């Protein structure tokens, strides 16, 4: 079989996605490869397809048990013999799997990195024909990354012990330069073919909101998105508990996840979400690594996360199947304070020496600042993120809140001049809140204590609403008229461009939203009516069919004890609804239906569609 046949036969797809072919071809030529592709772009196929075409065994190194389980289940569902070797197996199961492996049963074996050094595994590996070692989530080798796993450092030792060096392939979604260089160096990739595909996830709608009442906003969103799965990220365990409880009380299907729960409960809750038994997952950032669930339709950040890296990784779990998804961040000033506290009290830094710790803390404050600017900017949000990762695109994506909001240019020179003046006369010693209170003329103990009531600008902007002052303040930071120190105190100081306004009579123009409630509202409503399939279905009949296919999928998933999306993805079901196949060849034309899956479930889905069509016909006649 050639690679196109493998793609169609086992995975049911007709075409490769960007980057996949290049990487597959290179591996087949015996080259090392390095794929840097965003979450959901299809990295797995880049090693799975060559694994099925090469003689010998491909070992896949993966950091998490849940990831391995999921991928092996998906392969088994596609009719491919694959196994995993990790600590979730009993001793008996482990030796049995090794025995099968020795007999050449598995072209693909997933291995936890710590197994690589174990005697029994080495004994197997040294006598088997290992054609490739594929390192998934390769950023785990780097201490620069967020998910450093010391066991990943064992990979190279292992490879060097093998009698013949296999092809080594590495894959990650993390694109920062340091991490990238680390991966090539530490894994000792030999002249690898490197593929970096765009970091963009065009199907994700990005938005920032500053709701007065976050919970109301969340409930509202969930209500207008019935039947959809979503993740709600909170900064603290306490908040996870609170939000989860309130959603429960309001009748939503919801579960929770954070590091304070027992292992067993965490596993249970995660499974409930993955197996579609609960629709909403409320969690801290402890949740998500290794979640391959493809039909998460929204990710809501109840709080602003600590960095763009973390944020992008978290929203990366939205709509992995390429259907439209929504990513909303609820910003409040308190989020900055909470994150600063986390940075200054980070227990992970305890073992570092003073000097290194200082650098790490500074770097984290800097990252937080960039994250905060994301919440302030009136420019394209997608462009902001992509630039952060070093990718330059146009400043208009058409699928983020700023691109669809109508703005007008407002002259804010007067406000700017007074804010800058206040910072200067306060001798650059205060944070943003004190500056704003001062110009607004607040009569508080703090202001009196700092004697800011004697500042010449005290009360000079008493007529402006506080939110407006904050907006302008943010804009001044964003445009380098002001800077904020990254030492954890967030002192506001004059920036590089302050003199333009204070001395050179420059004007400050700012983009401000025209209406308070922009076009999203309409969009949300339309989507809600479109129901579960993310508005991709045309008409009520298709929606009813989709529901029916979804029930069938659920039934099969229960029988097979796998998550529903491993049977067929939402995207495949949507496609089925539009094709309405009547026979095998039409069914094989549906994206995501391969020979093997057709053999297993094809008849049941065809029957389901046939019955549905018949009922529809009857209904039409009786009308
Ligand atoms: P990654 O590891 O890059 O995050 P995955 O390998 O988990 O992404 O793939 C994400 C989804 O994309 C899966 O549901 C997968 O089946 C699907 N996919 C991968 N390649 C293709 C393709 N060529 N055509 C259609 N869907 C694909
Ligand atoms: Mg992956
Ligand atoms: Zn945009």
Question: Can I get a quick summary?
Answer:
Helix content is 48%, strand content 13%. The protein is built from 27 helices and 17 strands.
Ligand kinds: adenosine-5'-diphosphate, magnesium ion, zinc ion
Q: What is the helix tally?
A: 27
Reported for the largest beta sheet, the result is: 7 strands, parallel
Radius of gyration: 27 Å
Shape label = globular
Oligomer: single chain
Query: Which residue ranges are poorly predicted, with pLDDT under 50 across at least 5 consecutive positions?
Result: 516-534
How far from one another are the termini?
51 Å
Briefly note the structural class of the backbone: alpha/beta
> How many beta-strand runs?
17
The helix content is: 40-55%
Mean pLDDT metric: 90
Beta-strand residue percentage: 5-15%
User: Strand order within the widest sheet?
Assistant: 3-4-2-5-6-1-7
């Amino acid at each position: 079989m050639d690679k196109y046949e493998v793609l169609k036969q086992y995975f049911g797809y007709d075409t490769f996605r960007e980057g996949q072919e290049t990487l597959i071809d290179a591996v087949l030529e015996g080259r090392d490869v390095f794929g840097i592709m965003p979450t959901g772009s299809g990295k797995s196929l880049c090693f799975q397809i060559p694994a099925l075409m090469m003689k010998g065994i491909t070992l896949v190194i993966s950091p998490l048990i849940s990831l391995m389980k999921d991928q092996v289940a998906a392969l088994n569902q596609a009719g491919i013999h694959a196994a995993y070797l990790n600590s979730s197996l009993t001793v008996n199961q482990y030796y049995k799997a090794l025995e099968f492996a020795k007999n050449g049963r598995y072209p693909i074996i997933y291995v936890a990195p710590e197994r690589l050094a174990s005697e029994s595994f080495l004994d197997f590996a040294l006598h088997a024909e290992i054609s490739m070692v594929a390192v998934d989530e390769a950023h785990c080798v780097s201490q620069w990354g967020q998910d450093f796993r010391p066991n990943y450092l064992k990979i190279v030792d292992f490879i060097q012990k093998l009698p013949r060096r296999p092809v080594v392939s590495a894959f990650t979604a993390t694109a920062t330069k340091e991490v990238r260089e680390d991966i090539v160096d530490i894994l000792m990739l030999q002249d690898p073919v490197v593929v970096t595909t765009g970091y963009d996830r065009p199907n994700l709608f990005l938005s920032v909101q500053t709701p007065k009442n976050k919970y109301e906003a969340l409930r509202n969103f969930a209500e207008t998105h019935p039947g959809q799965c979503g993740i709600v990220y909170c900064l603290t365990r306490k908040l996870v508990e609170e939000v989860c409880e309130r959603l429960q009380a309001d009748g939503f299907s919801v579960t929770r996840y954070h590091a304070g729960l027992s292992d067993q409960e965490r596993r249970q809750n995660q499974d409930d979400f993955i197996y579609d038994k609960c629709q909403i997952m409320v969690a801290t950032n402890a949740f998500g690594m290794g979640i391959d669930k493809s039909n998460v339709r929204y990710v809501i950040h109840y709080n602003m996360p600590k960095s763009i890296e973390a944020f992008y990784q978290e929203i990366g779990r939205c709509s992995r199947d390429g259907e439209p998804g929504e990513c909303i961040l609820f910003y409040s000033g308190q989020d900055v304070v909470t994150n600063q506290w986390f940075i200054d009290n980070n227990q992970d830094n305890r073992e570092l020496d003073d000097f290194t710790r200082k650098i790490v803390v500074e770097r984290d404050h800097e990252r937080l600042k960039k994250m905060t600017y994301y919440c302030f900017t009136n420019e394209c949000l997608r462009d902001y993120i992509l630039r952060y990762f070093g990718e330059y695109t146009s400043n208009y994506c058409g699928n983020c809140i700023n691109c669809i909001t109508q703005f007008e240019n407002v002259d804010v020179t007067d406000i700017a001049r007074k804010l800058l003046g206040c910072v200067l006369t306060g001798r650059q010693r205060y944070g943003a809140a004190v500056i704003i209170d001062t110009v607004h003329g607040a009569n508080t103990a703090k202001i009196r204590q700092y004697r800011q009531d004697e500042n010449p600008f005290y009360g000079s902007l008493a007529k402006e609403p506080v939110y407006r002052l904050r907006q302008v303040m943010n804009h001044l930071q964003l445009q380098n008229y002001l800077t904020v120190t990254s030492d954890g105190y967030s002192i506001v100081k004059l920036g590089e461009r302050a003199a333009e306004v204070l001395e050179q009579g420059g004007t400050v123009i700012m983009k401000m939203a025209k209406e308070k409630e922009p076009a999203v509202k309409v969009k949300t409503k339309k989507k809600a009516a479109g129901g579960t399939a993310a508005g991709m279905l045309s008409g009520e009949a298709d929606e009813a069919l989709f529901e029916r296919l979804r029930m069938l999928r659920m039934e099969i998933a229960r029988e097979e004890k796998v998550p529903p999306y491993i049977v067929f993805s939402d995207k495949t079901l949507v496609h089925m609804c539009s094709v309405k196949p009547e026979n095998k060849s039409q069914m094989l034309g549906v994206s995501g239906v391969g020979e093997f899956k057709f053999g297993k479930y094809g008849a049941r889905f065809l029957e389901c569609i046939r019955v549905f069509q018949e009922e529809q016909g009857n209904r039409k006649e009786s009308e």
